[in-house]
């Protein structure tokens, strides 16, 4: 398997958005159920992108969608949220295995995010979470959102690599189905705590992905 680059989903796969965003909400909106607010804010994520994927709206960076979604969520909770709360998405804690695992993988392969986050968001998040990316790829260079094939293929093209030489790493089966359909190799790493103790989705692979690993350290070992 001649994998020359690894590209990664970030929200949920590399970082714990739920607890990290809830922490920021608790600090800025005391009295609100911070976890419920974080989950409701995140629930606006896919519908906001769907309008762009479906052609109903031109490309808008995720930072701006997050801000729109923040105010919509705050209104639903009956509170006013400061715009500064939107930077919570730049300060998400990595899962414990991520930094060491990425550094190990980077010894032999190019590593980069293939996230729906903007270049600015991914850069600031990388600095906060110590994610040692070689470059920032993903939605903004494609000006579209996953799981559209253009996002995966734009990342491969930016690296001047054929799709079959690039592996998409994600904790979400849907992301990997889309990447495989675009010709990329695939690796599944479960994150059973992404959505909290009641998580029922993506607890296990639902297809024969090229690699199924326990965590990023295990993935690094399997690739070595």
Automatic annotation (TrEMBL):
Entry annotated with the keyword Plastid: no
Keywords linked to the UniProt accession: Hydrolase
Entry EC number(s): 3.8.1.2
Enzyme class, spelled out: hydrolase
Protein family membership: Belongs to the HAD-like hydrolase superfamily. S-2-haloalkanoic acid dehalogenase family.
PANTHER family per UniProt: HALOACID DEHALOGENASE, TYPE II (AFU_ORTHOLOGUE AFUA_2G07750)-RELATED, HYDROLASE, HALOACID DELAHOGENASE-RELATED
Job of this protein: Catalyzes the hydrolytic dehalogenation of small (S)-2-haloalkanoic acids to yield the corresponding (R)-2-hydroxyalkanoic acids.
UniProt-recorded name of the protein: (S)-2-haloacid dehalogenase
Organism: Aquicoccus porphyridii
Origin organism lineage: Bacteria, Pseudomonadati, Pseudomonadota, Alphaproteobacteria, Rhodobacterales
């Amino acid at each position: 398997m001649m994998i020359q680059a690894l590209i990664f989903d970030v929200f949920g796969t590399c970082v714990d958005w739920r607890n990290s965003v809830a922490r920021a909400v608790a600090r800025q909106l005391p009295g609100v159920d911070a976890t419920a607010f974080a989950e409701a804010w995140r629930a606006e994520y896919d519908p906001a992108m769907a309008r762009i994927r479906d052609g109903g709206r031109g490309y808008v960076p995720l930072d701006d969608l997050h801000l729109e979604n923040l105010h919509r969520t705050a209104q639903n909770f009956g509170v006013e949220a400061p715009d500064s709360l939107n930077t919570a998405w730049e300060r998400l804690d990595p899962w414990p295995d991520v930094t060491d695992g990425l550094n190990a993988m980077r010894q032999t392969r190019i590593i980069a995010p293939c996230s729906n986050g903007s270049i600015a968001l991914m850069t600031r998040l990388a600095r906060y979470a110590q994610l040692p990316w070689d470059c920032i790829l993903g939605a903004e260079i494609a000006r579209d959102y996953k799981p559209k094939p253009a996002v995966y293929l734009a990342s491969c093209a930016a690296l001047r690599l054929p799709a079959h030489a690039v592996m998409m790493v994600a904790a979400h089966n849907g992301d990997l189905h889309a990447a495989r359909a675009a010709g990329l190799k695939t690796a599944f790493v479960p994150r059973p705590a992404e959505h909290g103790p009641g998580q029922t989705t993506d607890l296990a692979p639902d297809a024969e992905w090229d690699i199924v690993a326990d965590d990023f350290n295990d993935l690094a070992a399997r690739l070595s």
